[in-house]
Fold:
Amino acid sequence: MHQGAGRGEASIPSVTNKQPKGNISPSGWLAVAVAIVPFFLKRALLLGQHDFIFWLTADYSARIISLIGVAMARRSGLFAPARPSAGILASVLVFMALLAAEFYLHAIVYPELRAHFNYFELWRFPSVPNPLVRNFDLTFGLLLVAVSEESVFRALLFSLFERWRMKPLSVIALSSAAFALIHLTSGTAETLDAFLHGLLLGAAYWWTRRLVVCIASHYLFDLYIFSQGP
Structure:
């Protein structure tokens, strides 16, 4: 992603007694590794400058492998629901609030992060001169970004952390920290920005338990950001 915690743990409903047990099978741990590790391997592979064909190939491949890991995790039983989904109306309202909050962060907070914390930037997204490839990336590519990152850093990590009976704010904060870490090579400003966006996305997922809310907001926000490029 281009780039809060609530007023207190008491303000977030407790996990129901349907929460799954904490033990995870070896196949479950393998699935978690397949889902998460490609994000970090891709970042290491793309350090420095690369042409857009190599960059997109590595990026798409890593995300597809990650989604395979998510499917493996589902087959391993890691996605047992902890609480029911919110209603449609509530989910739409949360989506609208989430998207507005993400744009607020970009307009108000992100410029300050870039001005004061812009260090250790080790890579940048390359320009894509071919208009057909660029349009493909703005549609399929960004949708793949949203689906893969939300499936792993919201749905999968929430399910994993809730197995260990973590408190709601801890789940949101830890999943946001993991989300921020995959942006580390983009610099400290981008990493902090990703953490803040992760808090918003995590809170939205906690309240609604509808991954489509996070995917839609993530995609629309990224579409706006990347369509501004050259």
Observations:
- Residues 89-226 form one domain.
- The two ends are 18 Å apart (CA to CA).
